[in-house]
Structure formats: C-alpha cells, structure tokens
Amino acid sequence: MTELAAHLAAFDRLARPGPWNYSRAHHHDGGVHGFHLVFGSMVHGDEVGSLPAMVRVLQELADGTRTYGGRATFFVGNPEAGREGQRFLESDLNRVFMDNPPDTHEGRRARLLRPILDTADVFLDLHQTIEPTRHAFYIFPFQEQGWLWARALGTTPMWVTRHPGTAFTTGAMCADEYVRALGRPGITIELSEKGFGHGGEDRAYQAITAALALADAVDAGTTTLRAAAEAQPELTFLETVHRERFVDDTLALRPGIVNFDTVRAGDVVSADGTPELVVPKDGMILFPKYPPRVDGTYKRPLPGEIYRVVAPLQGHPLELYADADR
Ligand SMILES: [Zn+2]
Question: Which positions ≥6 away from 75 have C-beta within 8 Å?
C-alpha cells in the first residue's frame, strides 16, 4: 500500500459524513455551538501533505483527546486524481465551483462539495506548491475577516494577496472564492512543497487545531477574533507585480528556482539556449513552472504563467483597498 493509500484508508475508517452526500467527508458536531469550520485537503489531487494532519485530528476527536464544541467538516477533495499522482483528472477542481460546473469528474465533485461550503462560517483550503518553497503562505484576495482569521491562526506570516475586486479567473470559481462570495472567510494556505515530508503535515495540523481552538474561545467569550488577531504579529502583505505568460514550448526557466527566491529587475531567469526571460521588477519569484516534457513538448495543458513576481505592498490593504466593498 502506498503512503497515500494508507492515509486515505485511515481517513475512511474515521470519517462519518453525517449530513453530507459525499463519503470522503467527516462531519463533527460538538453540540455546544453551531460555528461551522470547514477544512479542505487535496482539492488538487497531488497536494497530499495535509491529509495525515486531518487524519490525526479526526483520530483525536474520535478518542476524546481533542474536543471542539462547534461543527467541523473535513473533506478530501480529489483523492481519485491523487491516486494517479495528478493535479486533476478532467478539469481543475479548484476552478469549477460555479453554478453550472462541467460534466467532468471534478465538476460532479464540486456539486457534492458545494453544500458543505454553503454553510461554512470559515473555510480553510489546504494546498501545497509544485516546486520547493522558502515560506508557507496564505494566498487569497484581501478580505477583512479573512485577514483577522489568517493573522490569528499564525500559520505563516506571509500573505500573497490582491485587491478583492479582481477575480482569480473569469469564468471559473475556486473553492475559497465560492465561500468569500457568500460573505465568509475563504482562506487558502500553501503549506509547503507538495507531497509528504516537506513540513506540510505539521503546518496543516497547526492551522486546523488553531482554528478549532479559536472558534471555541470566541464562543466561550474568552477572546474575540480581533483580540486573537492582534495577539499575533501583523502579516507581511505581498502582491503580484508581474506575470510571465507561458506562451509556447520554447520557454524554459533555468533549473533550481524555488518559490520566494529574491530577484532584481534585469535578472535573467531563463535556461541557457532558450528565449531570454528578463525579470522586469524587483521582488520574489512565485510559482516557477517546470512542466515535464515529452519529445521536447510540454505536457498539456500548458500553465498560464511560467513564473510570477511578488513584492511587498506599500501600505496596509485596509487603506490601499479601502475603495473595495468588503
Ligand atoms: Zn493547489
């Protein structure tokens, strides 16, 4: 049995879907209050690192070594793609949470997951990066309640954010975006490089257990969300300042670039013998792409961008994005 299969089997032994029409979900009801925390793992199939943390929390809730007074749902988004070592099978699950999803494996899965997200008071979507990363980071548009939750959880000080008025992709809907559209915090965390053993499990466990503890403490009146946020250091806000389009098969990054490598305007990041890619702005590289090649041709679909550059926001998003309806 593979490591993933073992963790999925452990999840299946513990999972009680309760009201949900999806077998790879666990619903917990602590009976004290109704605050519904939702945790997503493996929305991208090969981003498996949060699954062991979820299993650990389910085990603790089952044997009573951890309590949570509210409602919590834990779901495994795309284990079928995960078993194939793929991000998705037919269409990216994290793009199809729209009213009329495509009739694909992932579109059908989104239909089953949407009722869970419909009642989420906070949604934490646990992802991992393709390439190694120097930091864990939150990544979602600015939202005041999401900011308070992200800061209070303290999982990482880094947040790659953007103006809340800019949709991720038009004609697509991410899981966290779906929850934000309902007016509630939808928070995506990139825990580590994808896979087991890169630190993602520990960060996921910290994020999940901190969220459970915070929701209980707020219900008990021992703190408020704002006080819990202010007890943690302010986050470092970053935004995308450049996206390099992955225009064709001739492009290639030089080997060894990882997330949050520092770059300066004028730096060349392309591989020898390929069209020159010159970084236009100072910042840090994010999402460098090295898709596998077959006979000189990249695996399709080609990613939209070969890399991007992020840089610190010059000010606090509360002021910079004050025009937005949050
Ligand atoms: Zn992902």
Answer: 20, 22, 24, 25, 26, 38, 39, 40, 41, 113, 116
CB of 72 within 8 A of CB of 31? no
Mean pLDDT taken over the chain: 96
Cα of 8 to ligand 1 centre, how many Å? 18
Q: How far is the CA of 169 from the centre of ligand 1 (A)?
A: 15
Q: Do domains 3-234 and 242-326 have the same CATH topology?
A: no
Distance from the alpha carbon of residue 239 to the mean position of ligand 1, in angstroms: 18
Q: What is the pTM of this model?
A: 0.96
Domain ranges within the chain, ordered by starting residue: 3-234, 242-326
What Rg value do the Cα atoms of the chain yield, rounded? 20
Q: Cα(108) to centroid of ligand 1, in Å?
A: 19
Q: Cα–Cα distance between 225 and 204 in angstroms, integer?
A: 20
pLDDT surpassing 70 at residue 264: yes
